[in-house]
Every structure is written in structure tokens, then in C-alpha cells.
Amino acid sequence: MKLVLIKALEMIAPPIIKKAIAYFGRKKESRDVIELINHDLFNTLERTRQKIHTMKFYTHGEYDRVKTRMCYDFAKHKTLRCGIRMEDMLRVKNIDTMDRDSLKRLVLSEQTKMHEDYIKAVRIEWDIKGIDKEDIDYVVHLFEKFRYDVVSSFEARINSIFGSTYNSTNFEIMLAIFEMWAMGIDLLPRDMLTTFESLNGKFKDIKYLT
Known about the structure:
The chain is an all-alpha fold. It folds into 2 domains: 1-29, no CATH class; 31-197, no CATH class. It is 71% helix and 2% strand. It is built from 8 helices and 2 strands. It has helices at residues 2-12, 15-25, 40-53, 65-90, 100-128, 133-163, 170-186, 188-197, and strands at residues 58-59, 62-63. It has a two-stranded antiparallel ribbon. α5 (100-128) runs antiparallel to α6.
């Protein structure tokens, strides 16, 4: 019935009305999730890693080489591992057509795996470079404590994104997810600064291999 009405209007309407009918009656062009490979999130990961690389830490007024290097090594693994996971997720088979529940499960699973991947990499590097296991656990716990609000916000926003009728396609859902993650990455330097400033001079005198 709708198609018949449109055809009828096209026959009797003046040219400007016909153009309006054609514009609003056309099918919305769909976009593939893989297009997000060019999202600014990936530039944000690189920019944040470089920003943290320039950060310097001091203990009692003296430059603390160990704390400075530990902070960068942590951020390096976090940004690189998360970037790899995010890119791989865009290439998941059928990501454009999977139902919302499946896509939400994928996003939550990958977000958890990102965390597991970079924490594992950080633990390995710090262990090789001479940090005791107990001290590694201590720093990781500190970071997770300061990062808790961001992670909690991610979970709340993911539920909101998947529950919103504004995001009608998987591309739109993943675009909203990537915007959210980019915001979290922009906050990373703040959380790294808070974490490592809290260490005081804990590692200043150890021989941290570089």
C-alpha cells in the first residue's frame, strides 16, 4: 500500500516534490563494521602511548628512572594489546549480521580478553626486568583500583548502547562502542599518573633492566 501511494504521488507531484519523495523514500545505505578500521580510536591509542612515553616521575625531587620506565612499559602493552584485539574484532565473521545478543556477548568477551592480554604481557616483562611477583601484584591492583570508575562506566554504557533504538545496525552499535573506548583511552594518562605517583620511591633503587 505504501509503495502504491508513493507511485501515485510521483505521477501528480511537481518536480521538487518528486525529488523530496525520492530522497526520503530511498533505502538507507548500510555500512560494514570493518570500515571502523579507520576510526580515530587507533590514532588515539598511538597518541596516548606517545604522551605517556614523555611523562617523567620523580621521587623526593629526583628523577625516578625505574618508575618512569615501568609506567611506559605498562601503557605500551595496554595500548598495543587492546589495539590488536579491537582490530581483530572488526574482522569477526558475520559481525555485520549477528543478532544483538551475540554481538553484545562478543564485545564484553573481547573487552575482558583485552584486559587479560595486557596484564599478562606486563607481568611477563616486569618479571624479566627484575620486579618481584608481590610488587607486580601490588602495582596491578593499584591501577585497577584507580581505573575502576572507567571500567564500570564502560559496562553501563555498553548496556545503554545495546538497549537504544537509535543504534539500528551493528555498524552503528560498534561505532558507539569505539567512541566509548576512545574516551576511556584518553583518560589513560591520568590513571597512569595517579597509579605511579602513588608508588613513591618503592622501586627507585632496584635494577630495572632496559
